[in-house]
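for the recovery benchmark. C-alpha cells below, seq after
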C-alpha cells in the first residue's frame, strides 16, 4: 500500500495500490511499484454516487472516476483501477447530494467508465461493499434489522456483487473481493451459517481479478466493523484464506501494520497456508 513507506515496500519486494485521493505527483515516487489504483469515493464529506437519481451529481461522480482512470493511465505498470459501486441510499445530513441510487443507472455508469478505461488498457475491478451496523447494539440480530432503512451500498451481498458484474458484461470489468467487507455482510447470518455464507463470495473465481485481503472476526460482534485485521489475527476460516491465495488475481494485503514485524508475521501466515 502507498501509505506504507517506499523503503519498506522495496525491502519486502511488495507492489502497491495508488491511494484513492493521491495526486499524480504523490504517486510518482511509487511508479515502479504501482500495480493498481483505487478510484476516489468522496468529494469532501459527500460520498460520490455514480448511480444517483440526481443527474447533475451522478455526472460529476462519474467524471471524477473517469478523471482518475485518465490519471492512472500515465503509470505504465498500473493496469487495474478499483471502484466502489455506489450508495443505494445514504441518510447522513452531510450527504447533500446523491442520497438515492438506482440500479439501472449504476449499470450504465460502470459501462461508461469501462469504455474510458478500455481505451487506455485499464481493467475496472468492482469491490463488494461493507454492511453498515452503525448505531446497532451488539446483541442486535441481523435478520431482525430493517436493512432497507439504513445506509447501504449496492454490491454488499455476494449475489448482487456478482450479478452487477455479469449484467455490466464488459470484458474489462471484473471483481475485487474485500474479505473484511464480506465479513461485515455475513455477520447478518446466525453464527452457524456464517462460514457457509462466506463461501458465496467465491462461487465465481473466474470473475475475481483483484483482492483486498485482510482478516476479520466471523463469530463475534467485532466482525460487524470493517476491521481489516492483520492476517492471522482474526477468525476467517483457514480454508477461505487458502482459496484467496489460490485465486488468479492481483492480491493486495489491505491491513495497517505498525512495524516490519507485523508485515513479516502476515507473510509467514500466507506462506504457511
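predicted aa per position
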Amino acid at each position: 500500500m502507498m501509505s506504507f513507506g517506499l523503503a519498506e515496500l522495496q525491502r519486502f519486494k511488495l507492489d502497491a495500490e495508488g491511494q484513492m485521493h493521491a495526486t499524480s505527483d504523490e504517486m510518482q515516487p511509487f511508479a515502479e511499484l504501482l500495480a493498481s489504483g483505487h478510484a476516489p469515493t468522496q468529494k469532501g464529506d459527500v460520498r460520490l454516487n455514480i448511480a444517483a437519481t440526481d443527474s447533475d451529481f451522478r455526472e460529476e461522480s462519474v467524471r471524477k472516476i473517469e478523471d482518475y482512470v485518465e490519471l492512472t493511465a500515465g503509470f505504465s505498470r498500473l493496469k487495474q483501477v478499483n471502484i466502489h459501486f455506489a450508495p443505494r441510499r445514504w441518510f447522513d445530513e452531510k450527504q447533500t447530494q446523491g442520497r438515492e441510487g438506482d440500479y439501472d443507472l449504476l449499470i450504465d455508469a460502470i459501462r461508461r467508465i469501462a469504455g474510458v478505461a478500455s481505451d487506455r488498457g485499464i481493467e475496472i475491478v468492482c469491490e463488494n461493499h461493507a454492511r453498515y451496523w452503525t448505531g446497532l447494539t451488539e446483541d442486535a440480530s441481523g435478520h431482525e434489522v430493517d436493512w432497507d432503512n439504513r445506509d447501504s451500498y449496492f454490491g454488499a451481498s455476494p449475489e448482487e456483487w456478482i450479478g452487477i458484474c455479469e449484467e455490466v458484461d464488459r470484458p474489462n470489468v471484473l471483481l475485487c473481493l474485500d474479505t473484511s467487507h464480506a465479513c461485515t455482510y455475513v455477520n447478518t447470518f446466525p453464527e452457524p451459517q456464517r462460514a457457509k455464507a462466506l463461501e458465496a463470495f467465491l462461487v465465481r473465481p473466474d470473475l475475481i481479478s483483484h483482492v483486498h485481503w485482510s482478516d476479520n472476526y466471523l463469530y463475534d460482534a467485532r466482525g460487524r466493523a470493517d476491521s481489516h485485521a492483520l492476517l492471522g489475527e482474526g477468525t476467517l476460516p483457514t480454508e477461505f484464506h487458502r482459496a484467496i491465495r489460490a485465486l488468479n488475481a492481483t492480491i493486495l494485503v489491505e491491513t495497517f501494520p505498525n512495524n516490519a514485524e507485523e508485515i513479516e508475521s502476515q507473510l509467514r501466515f500466507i506462506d504457511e497456508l
